[in-house]
Design brief:
The complex is a heterodimer. Chain A is α/β, with parallel strands linked by helices. Chain A folds into two domains: 117 residues, ACT domain (Alpha-Beta Plaits), CATH 3.30.70; 111 residues, 3 Solenoid (Pectate Lyase C-like). Helices cover 31% and strands 30% of the residues of chain A. In chain A, helix 1 crosses helix 5. The longest helix of chain A is centred in the middle third of the chain and has 23 residues. The two termini of chain A are 39 Å apart. Chain B is α/β, with parallel strands linked by helices. Chain B has an eight-stranded mixed beta sheet, sandwiched between helices. The chains are: A alpha/beta, B alpha/beta. Chains A and B meet through loops of A and helix 7 of B.
Chain lengths: 236, 269
């Protein structure tokens, strides 16, 4: 579950900061359950006002964590769950807070949401299995592995497209198009047993087959991003 | 239980109808009761290849619409026992076929026949989809050139996703590759894809290689399936194909350039 750390829990501040964050990726946190971490807050916030703010932002405030006795009582009164502070949160949060104790609320929230982002992404990566295609991908077929890796146990025909938010592994000839890191992750790679692709792309950076002619054409290869450019290297 | 075999390719002009006629005739010659159904509504050709164009009274669309029954519509082949043809309509278009209508006709045919050969139209539109939807096996006709190979690849994708077997999660359609218009001399010169190239790209089992042959055109013009021309290389290659379709192991022929004999080399035959 996503946990929000914030030093300033006034409705006005949160609204500005959260709206700005949500505007970057409106669908990502749509109706996401959120837990408020109150370890940085000493006063008791107006929980019912916060609840309606979260509803307005299409988030669901489900509970609080790291609350003191007074905050717990107020949370109960507002119908929120009181949760034990997760160990992972404490671990990731503590060093950052210790190193930079004097943060403005704005940067604090930005950091916190960034932490939530990566935590949520890690959760997604951990829970979703790679998409495995057991046969050859034929011309005209399009396969998209949303939020995960794609493994093809066969060839990808000319005129076929394989797309993944994660890495792409092809245990056969790649004659069509392969698009890895489709949601913008430049660390993703394409691996194939026989490179004869029409196009390879990582996070929007692409090469057509003209640029792929060379010593790796028709051979096994790994394609990755390095210094803002695609690089082909040996598979093994 | 009748076996429904679709003869398809995606690309036009590669030899679907020629192959349908040859395969249907070959199966009938082997003693199986066979019907060839022409799915190319509006561009009827099978009747010409089979030499029965003057005997078409009713057609496939008439049967679907209930204007005629199968008995009136099926044309019995005059040369080969056990062989019947269900001609397409020349005046209608592909939309005249409905899935329910086709299913009813195929069910009706399945009661009587061992094999139902569906001669698919080119393309990937409704007519071709209708021809492959009910199939148990598919013969994918491919010429050894890149556009035909790519279209075959596309059709193979359709077979594994758009057929009844795929939609109902049954065992997939058995796919066979039939390479036609193969010219070993041009392959040797590097002007044509080789059998190995095509097999590598399409990755399905090869059931036959039909050499490029004058006999095919002659057969079409005279309205006689080329498989009946037993002296020709193409006819023999189709006979081998039928044996493989029926489960026999037959070595492939006509894959290499024929060496000229001693006499021919001296006198330039």
């Amino acid at each position: 579950m996503s946990v929000l750390h914030c030093a300033d829990l006034s409705v006005a501040t949160l609204q500005t900061l959260l709206s700005a964050k949500l505007a970057q990726a409106p669908a990502f946190f749509l109706q996401a359950p959120i837990v408020l971490n109150l370890s940085d807050v000493s006063q008791t916030p107006d929980f019912s006002a916060l609840k309606s703010l979260f509803t307005e932002l299409k988030l669901v405030l489900v509970g609080v964590t790291a609350a003191n006795a007074e905050q717990k009582a107020a949370a109960h009164a507002a119908g929120l769950a009181v949760l034990q502070a997760g160990k992972a949160n404490v671990n990731t949060k503590a060093p950052a807070a210790a190193q930079q104790p004097a943060k403005s609320p704005a940067t604090e929230v930005a950091d916190a949401t960034a932490a939530i982002n990566s935590a949520a992404l890690a959760a997604v990566a951990a829970t979703m299995d790679s998409k495995v295609i057991e046969q050859t991908v034929r011309s005209g077929q399009q396969i998209y592995a949303k939020g995960t890796d794609l493994i093809v146990k066969g060839a990808v025909g000319a005129g076929a497209e394989v797309i993944a938010d994660g890495n792409i592994h092809i245990y056969g000839s790649l004659r069509g198009k392969a698009i890895a890191g489709a949601s913008g992750d430049t660390s993703k790679r394409i691996y194939c047993y026989n490179l004869q692709a029409e196009l390879v792309s990582i996070a929007g950076n692409y090469w057509l087959s003209d640029s792929l002619q060379g010593k790796f054409w028709g051979k096994s290869a790994c394609i990755k991003m390095q210094d803002d450019s695609l690089v082909i290297s040996e598979l093994v | 239980m009748a076996k429904i075999i679709v003869v398809t390719s995606g690309k036009g002009g590669v030899g679907k109808t020629t192959s349908s006629a040859a395969i249907g005739t070959g199966l009938a010659l082997a003693g199986h009761k066979t019907v060839i159904v022409d799915f190319d509504i509006g561009l009827r050709n099978l009747d010409l290849i089979m030499g029965c164009e003057r005997r078409v009274v009713y057609d496939f669309v008439n049967v679907i619409n209930g204007e005629a029954n199968l008995k009136q519509t099926l044309i019995k082949d005059k040369r080969t026992d056990n062989l019947f043809i269900l001609p397409a309509s020349q005046t209608r278009d592909k939309d005249a076929l409905t899935r329910d209508g086709v299913e009813n006709v195929l069910n009706e045919l399945a009661k009587e026949f061992d094999f139902i050969i569906c001669d698919s139209p080119a393309g990937i539109e409704s007519g071709a989809m209708m021809a492959l939807y009910f199939a148990d096996e598919a013969v994918v006709v491919t010429n050894p050139e890149v556009s035909s190979v790519r279209d075959s690849d596309r059709i193979l994708g359709m077979l594994s996703s758009k057929s009844r077997r795929a939609e109902q999660g049954l065992e997939g359609i058995k796919e066979h590759l039939l390479l036609t218009r193969y010219n070993p001399e041009r392959v040797e010169k590097g002007e044509m894809l080789s059998v190995e190239d095509v097999k590598e790209i399409l990755a399905i089992e090869l059931i036959g290689v039909i050499p490029e042959s004058q006999a095919v055109l002659n057969a079409s013009n005279s309205g006689q399936p080329v498989i009946l021309d037993k002296d020709s290389d193409a006819g023999q290659a189709y006979l081998d194909t039928i044996k493989r379709l029926l489960g026999e192991q037959v070595p492939f022929r006509f894959l290499n350039v024929e060496k000229k004999g001693f006499i021919k080399r001296i006198f330039g035959g």
